């Protein structure tokens, strides 16, 4: 039997949100949501309570019911936030229903929503990821003139990124040059995306002119974060064997871009590398000149280290950390996050764990949930369930927080796949406390597995839990339970359990 709802004398949307959030069964939550209007004739749902109901249905995979609630929200014409549509668009995309996501986005003008900038950017991001650039362009053209989309810079950056990924940096450059006509001001990301695209396509002449435009548009105060964009061009010039040009441009960067003191303007001696045999050495010399030539700042060290780690240049990035500490700067969380990701990418998981447990603590930079989640995601990718369990426990005890829903769900599937059903059952207990309900397939796998090792009590407990959420077990689950109940040695216990099942 479900828990009775204690309805208040006067119902508010906030109180209703709290009630439906406590329901394990999304359909029960929906019934309560719908019942509220009939019980209280003067009550009206508002945007936040609609958002809560839509989120519950979307998270549990009840897409048909979610569509009905969205339609109801439109008919009620209550004010709703952009974030509701962002959530639903992502839910549709994750379910492979991209066309439905597009349809919802195009219908937003029929809702009482005054600003849908994030929905626009989310939709473009999905189109770029799905490689549907024509639709992305059409959506941009249709949405760029209205006042509901407040900023186009991020959208233009996304389109430039997509074009550069297609080796069409020439078109990305045209888009960049048209930013002024769109009343947009390019930011650092705009320059970084386009610079990388032009250099990958060997358009070094255009890349050099882009650098000069950067000097007078965003680098007038010598911002250290610009160092990453400068490095992209200088590395490309070295790869093309244009060492003299790289030296010349480095001098201009130090003077005009980084506003470096005159003592740092001395020229590099790259003559011995002009035969092109040691391009990487030339790059390292240039990187050191950029770091030492810039006005020392946390921003410049942070940008350079994160960028090097993202490219897998771990040793070189480590030197940047040493240099910044010598200059009196402490490595940031973002640097350690980038290092952990880089180490995991090359399967150096033990070293990544050492970074979290030793290196971060040494510099008084306490590990965060984010850095643990980066580690956990990578451990999930390599299928190391034992290391994931250990990291989750350390995360809980040292950081005071837990992994996200996806990490727990992946780990549960892995434990079932490895036939470690008791550990999977214990993990699901922790998930239940956090309201991280698994999918139907995970429940089926776990219950069948518990039956196979004779764990009758746990199997029925999770069956009850599954049904309480409105999820239906497969026939194979019932067959497994039936086989277990027919075991003559456990017939007494089985009859007691069967009585419990009859009450479900």
From TrEMBL:
Residues that span the membrane, as ranges: none
Annotated ranges, domain PROP1-like PPR: 278-418
GO biological process: mitochondrial RNA processing; RNA splicing
GO MF annotation list: mRNA binding
One Pfam assignment: PPR
Cross-referenced InterPro entries: PPR_rpt (IPR002885), PROP1-like_PPR_dom (IPR033443), TPR-like_helical_dom_sf (IPR011990)
Lineage: superkingdom: Eukaryota
PROSITE patterns, A to Z: PPR (PS51375)
Keywords, comma-separated and alphabetical: Repeat
A GO cellular-component term linked to this record: mitochondrion
PPR repeat residue numbers: 46-80, 152-186, 226-260, 297-331, 404-438, 439-473
Protein family per UniProt: Belongs to the PPR family. P subfamily.
The protein's name in its UniProt record: PROP1-like PPR domain-containing protein
Naturally occurring in which organism (per UniProt): Glycine max
């Amino acid at each position: 039997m479900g828990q009775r709802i204690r309805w208040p004398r006067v119902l508010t949307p906030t109180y209703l949100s709290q009630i439906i959030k406590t329901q394990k069964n999304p359909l029960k939550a929906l019934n309560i949501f719908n019942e509220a209007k009939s019980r209280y004739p003067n009550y009206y749902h508002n945007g936040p309570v609609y958002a809560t109901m839509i989120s519950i249905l979307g998270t549990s995979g009840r897409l048909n019911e979610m569509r009905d609630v969205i339609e109801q929200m439109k008919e009620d014409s209550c004010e709703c936030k952009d974030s509701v549509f962002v959530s639903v668009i992502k839910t549709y995309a994750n379910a492979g229903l991209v066309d439905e996501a597009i349809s919802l986005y195009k219908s937003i003008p029929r809702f009482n929503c005054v600003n849908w900038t994030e929905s626009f950017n989310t939709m473009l991001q999905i189109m770029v990821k799905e490689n549907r650039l024509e639709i992305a362009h059409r959506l941009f053209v249709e949405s760029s003139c209205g006042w509901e989309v407040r900023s186009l810079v991020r959208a233009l950056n996304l389109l430039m990124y997509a074009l550069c990924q297609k080796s069409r940096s020439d078109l990305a450059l045209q888009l960049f040059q048209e930013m002024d006509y769109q009343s947009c001001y390019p930011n650092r990301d705009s320059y970084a995306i386009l610079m990388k695209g032009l250099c990958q396509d060997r358009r070094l002449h255009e890349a050099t002119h882009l650098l000069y435009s950067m000097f007078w548009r965003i680098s007038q105060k010598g911002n250290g974060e610009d160092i990453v964009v400068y490095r992209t061009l200088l590395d490309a010039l070295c790869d093309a064997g244009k060492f003299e040009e790289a030296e010349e441009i480095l001098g201009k960067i130090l003077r005009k871009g980084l506003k470096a003191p005159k003592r740092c303007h001395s020229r590099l001696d790259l003559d011995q590398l002009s035969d092109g045999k040691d391009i990487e050495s030339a790059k390292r010399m240039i990187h050191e000149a950029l770091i030492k030539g810039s006005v020392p700042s946390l921003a410049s060290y942070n940008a350079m280290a994160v960028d090097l780690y993202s490219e897998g240049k771990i040793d070189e990035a480590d030197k940047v950390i040493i240099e910044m500490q010598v200059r009196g700067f402490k490595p940031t969380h973002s640097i350690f996050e980038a290092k952990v990701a880089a180490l995991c990418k090359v399967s150096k998981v033990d070293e990544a764990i050492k970074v979290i447990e030793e290196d971060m603590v040494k510099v008084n930079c306490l590990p965060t949930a984010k850095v643990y989640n980066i580690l956990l995601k990578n451990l999930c990718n390599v299928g190391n369930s034992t290391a994931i369990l250990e990291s989750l426990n350390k995360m809980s005890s040292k950081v005071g927080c837990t992994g996200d829903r996806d990490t727990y769900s992946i780990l549960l599937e892995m434990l079932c796949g490895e036939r470690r059903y008791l550990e999977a059952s214990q993990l699901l207990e922790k998930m239940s406390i956090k309201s991280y309900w698994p999918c139907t397939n995970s429940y089926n796998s776990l219950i069948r597995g518990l039956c196979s090792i004779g764990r009758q009590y746990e199997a029925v407990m999770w069956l009850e839990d599954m049904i309480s959420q409105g999820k239906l077990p497969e026939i194979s689950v019932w067959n497994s339970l039936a086989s277990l109940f027919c075991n003559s040695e456990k017939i007494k216990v089985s009859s007691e359990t069967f009585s419990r099942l009859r009450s479900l």
